[in-house]
User: Which sequence fits this backbone?
């Protein structure tokens, strides 16, 4: 038996097809931190720009606080197209594009301005372009700030103070080498497991920038904060090639503009927390100390064997070009 559907008049059909509801594309965006973090602020700005400039043809659905899993899982979802967008740290990125790891070398950048100029310049932009071969569209470098060590065992002033410290690192080979070289007992671990592991005491500490320590309330589970600034922590805004391939060039341009504005919002947030974060964490009861220039030099000296390893993986000329960037 054949069922006949009532015919829809041509003009009605045209209206239905043009309806924003029908034409909307959902952008599931996953990130590891809360909506009021530097990631949340950036994701919101990205959404505002895209929704405004495409008349709402794209609708962002946010999955903050690792709602879609750890960063590695989310990046894999972006490759497959089950997740459309993400903002991630450089934690696992070197496992997708090895060259990214060059920015994870300890004590490479002098300050935030130096890091931003390198990432926004040819060296950073060349690395972004390499993500296409890894099945990812990398739109921009964001940032988290410089990473510092927190722990529950003791305050840190010299490499001896982290001897045997059970320290969670990101799933990042460069960081792992650094902490092994310094004599700590590093454990790579996905972020969603970290707070529980600190609560249970299976690890003593972790390292992250002030933006993360403040927004994730690490003061609830950590006693000591050492302002070590041992490594800069970049972030990246990624889009799935599946949704990217379905977009017009005009829409891609809007996503790029949105990413640029999201990065500006993220950097603004990091600038603010770099100013206020120490005081906030002191007020929340953390024991805070800062490495002096001499202390930092002692860490750099202890890291010499790690630098030799990095030079085997990364082009020394590029490292020197980064250091020489004004
Ligand atoms: O430590 C990490 O894994 C990252 O810095 C975090 C907290 C997931 C933010 O990207």
Assistant:
């Amino acid at each position: 038996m054949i069922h006949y559907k009532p015919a829809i008049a041509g003009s009605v059909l045209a209206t239905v097809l043009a309806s924003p509801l029908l034409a909307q594309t959902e952008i599931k965006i996953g990130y590891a931190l809360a909506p009021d973090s530097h990631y949340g602020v950036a994701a919101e700005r990205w959404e505002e720009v895209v929704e405004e400039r495409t008349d709402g043809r794209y609708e962002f659905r946010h999955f903050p606080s690792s709602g879609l899993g750890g960063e590695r899982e989310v990046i894999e979802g972006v490759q497959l197209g089950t997740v459309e967008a993400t903002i991630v740290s450089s934690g696992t990125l070197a496992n997708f594009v090895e060259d990214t790891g060059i920015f994870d070398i300890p004590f490479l950048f002098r300050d935030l301005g130096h890091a931003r100029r390198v990432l926004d310049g040819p060296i950073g932009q060349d690395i972004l372009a390499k993500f296409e071969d890894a099945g990812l569209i990398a739109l921009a470098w964001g940032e988290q700030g410089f990473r510092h060590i927190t722990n529950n065992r003791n305050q840190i002033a010299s490499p001896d103070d982290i001897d045997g410290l059970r320290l969670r690192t990101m799933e990042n080979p460069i960081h792992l080498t650094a902490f092994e070289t310094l004599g700590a007992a590093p454990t790579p671990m996905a972020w969603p497991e970290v707070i529980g592991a600190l609560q249970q005491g299976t690890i003593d500490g972790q390292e992250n920038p002030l933006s993360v320590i403040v927004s994730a309330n690490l003061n609830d589970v950590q006693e000591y904060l050492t302002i070590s600034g041992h490594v800069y922590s970049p972030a990246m805004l990624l889009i799935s090639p599946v949704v990217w391939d379905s977009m017009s060039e005009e829409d891609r341009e809007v996503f790029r503009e949105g990413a640029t504005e999201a990065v500006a919002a993220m950097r603004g947030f990091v600038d603010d927390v770099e100013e206020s974060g120490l005081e906030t964490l002191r007020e929340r009861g953390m024991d805070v100390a800062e490495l002096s220039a001499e202390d930092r030099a002692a860490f750099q000296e202890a890291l010499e064997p790690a630098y030799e390893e990095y030079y085997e993986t990364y082009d020394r000329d590029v490292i020197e070009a980064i250091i020489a960037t004004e």
Notes: Residues 1-20 have pLDDT under 50 and may be disordered.
